[in-house]
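== Sequence, structure tokens ==
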Amino acid sequence: MAGQSSTTNTTSTSTGTSTSTSAATSNTTGLSTTTGSSTASAQRVPPPTAVTAFLAGRPVWQVSYLSGLAAGVVTEIWGLAARAAGVPMKAAGLGSPHATAITVGMFALGTMVVVFWFTFVTAAVARFSRRPARLYVRLTVPLTFLSLLIPGTAADTAVSTKLVLAVAHLLAAAVIIPSVAYRLAQVTADPAA
């Protein structure tokens, strides 16, 4: 590009702007941009948002419970939508041969019960692991998929109900796992975590 100077690693984009990984770059408009890293192994950090700033300032156990509360709301709304769509809300419990009614509030309640108990595991991971976010994700993702066996194998339960329950498990995981993993990624040797 004409009128452009650079010291190292200049790249051009389709908009005609240029960036450099280790020095300022001038494009034809006279603007210069740099990235904050001069090494190729630097990790890209997303810009802080109100949510990430809020999560980063809370203890791990609190982030776990707050994300569980949010997941409870999401799963309950999902359950109410399924109920309104006419999905039968009767399912057999683990090991039970007969289905019982799934009442309003049970999606949120089930989510919060699991989050309550798993927060103890999360706190232990935060305290004793050298890489807590990585370990947390390696624990929770397989457990999420194992949890799909419960609605999938429920006796005396309609297929549509099994699908609604399985999606509720995935929705809860989609809310909880990223937020807790984000907070755990900031745990180093923080005893308050």
Notes: The longest strand covers residues 10-12. The mean pLDDT is 80.
